Amino acid sequence: MPNGPVSPIDAPDDSVPDELVSPVDDTPMDFLPDAEDTRQQKTPGISSWKNCITGIGQTFNTRRELRDALDKFSLAHGFHYTLKNSDGRRFCARCKAEGCPWFIIAPILSTTKLYRIKKMNDTHTCGVGSKSRNASRKLIASIIKEKLRDNPTYKPQEIINEIRRDLGIELNYAQAYGGIAAALEELQGSHRKAYNQLPLLCEKIMETNPGSAAILNSKEDSSFHRIFVAFHALLYGFQNGCRPLLFLDCVPLKSKYRGELFTACALDGNDGIFLVAFAIVDVLSGDNWRWFLEQLKTLLSTSLEITFVADMKKEMSESLGLIFPNCFHGYCLHQLTECLKNKFKGSFTQEVVRVLISEFHGATYAPTVEGFKKCIETIKNISPEAYEWVLQTEPEHWANAFFKGARYNHLKSSVTGSFCDWISDLPAMPITQVIEAIRLKMMEFMYTRKMESEKWSSKLSPSAEENLQRSIANSHSLEVLFSPDSCLKVRDDLGIINIVSLENWDCSCREWQINGIPCLHAAAAIERIGKNVYDYCYRYFTTEAFKVTYSESINPIPALDRCVQRESSAVHVHPPCTTRPVGRPKVRKHALKSKQAERRALKCSLCKKLGHNKRKCKQAA
Fold this sequence. Notes:
Blueprint: H1 35-42, H2 44-47, E1 59-60, H3 63-77, E2 81-83, E3 90-95, E4 103-107, E5 115-116, E6 119-121, H4 137-150, H5 156-167, H6 173-188, H7 191-196, H8 198-208, E7 213-218, E8 224-230, H9 232-241, E9 245-252, E10 260-267, E11 273-281, H10 286-299, E12 307-310, H11 314-323, E13 328-331, H12 333-344, H13 350-365, H14 369-382, H15 384-392, H16 417-425, H17 431-453, H18 462-474, E14 479-482, E15 488-491, E16 497-501, E17 506-507, H19 511-515, H20 520-528, H21 543-549, H22 560-566, H23 591-596
Parallel strand pairs: 9-12, 12-13
Antiparallel strand pairs: 1-5, 2-3, 3-4, 4-6, 7-8, 8-11, 9-10, 10-11, 14-15, 15-16, 16-17
Helix pairs in contact: 4-6, 5-6, 9-21, 10-11, 12-13, 13-14, 14-15, 18-20
């Protein structure tokens, strides 16, 4: 062992023997543990790091692996090190304390990428163990990476608490946040590089799933603009097994470069969500929605009269009318409700607003004009202003009594909320992995639902069967009256008569036309003439149609990293110009809504006029 400090860089090759240099162990057998030993007893996880560096002859696969091991080793032993004269051929480190002889030299083995410790002085004269534990960002990232493998939604404060408990290392919020970002980039890849992989991804989607569509648009400066994806299995399932009903929705993505996810979802015969197509765009705009609908139009059959349920926006209505001239646009009830609530929230008490919303929903779901008018008159008695607002929102686009399309009583685009919630819960990941996560989710849906349908014994799906049995049970007390024409009259317990036409598949109550399942009046009439009620259900609710919906499968896509090594795309795509601001948002999510809410006007309890209270009322004086 050398008698004095030896520089790891200036020492000749033969100045350090090819064996581990260690201090003489003259520690007595019986001793009291010092503060460092006690601290490590409380944090057993860090004790295992003492053996990350074992000595001369130890090899490492990469330079990064060696650096991580040394970071853990120095942290466990309580000293700081610095690199000196390290390059691509060798790794050299020494203790940062002045005069301390500890050093390590690990050159790269010739013809390999392995690093092997050739020389090492394990002696410290700097009071090793007394240094504070300061972990580097890369070490924190390597620690966090293992935690994120099991739970990618870890929050910075959770990381701080766990590392303090397990390792005794104190981190601030910025260090934990930066460590999570670095670890996620190692696990998921670079957000920036993922955009350049999009051309290859589009190529592989269409190659592995024939009949699919993957269309990428970039701007003049080669920055990302939008991408549209529709798998053949989903297009086939929608056009051959689902109702011609699509719900358009938008979900903001958690990404370094933001982005919006556009979705066109249908419902299968069991009222399960069925994604037909989706797009990721740089910003939410009418132009991007128009482009999304244009791509969708090219893939769908021109003979389908599709009903869309979407927001009540002028741009959306114009785009749908232009691109799908034979379609029907149903306004989303959820958006209409929010508009009504915000408009009259400051003018009435919460109880009055709740009554207005309840009557508005009653008018929306009312199957007949009489039921619609009854609810509207109630709104008029409460507030003539609310009555005028309701009429100005074009009831022919949202009221069952007037709507010409077929929504099957699904009036909210938020019926796909579970899928959108799943998207929102995804951690921030590169755009290629977002597309892959959606593909895997739909693959799971296709397989599990296909397996479930094999166990069904009824002609209808479980949800449709339940609705039909309810109609049959309620029809037993009805009286069926024959009429001279082909229609049947059905009288209920209150003496109300409804006309059922089995030839046209309709009833004067309009429940059959709206839901696609025979209502109680139709069920009574069908049973009375001795026919099978199942023959009068829309085909979309049959088990056969459900199986057709999930008859095709989505094929896997090869890993893009492996494909890039063999193939190179001539198209280069850069991230969009807009990036997520650093830190937390300055303004809360609902701050603007609270500012826009009108201030409640004063109302006198004596004269019932607005603008003053009873203390300043002139009549009281």
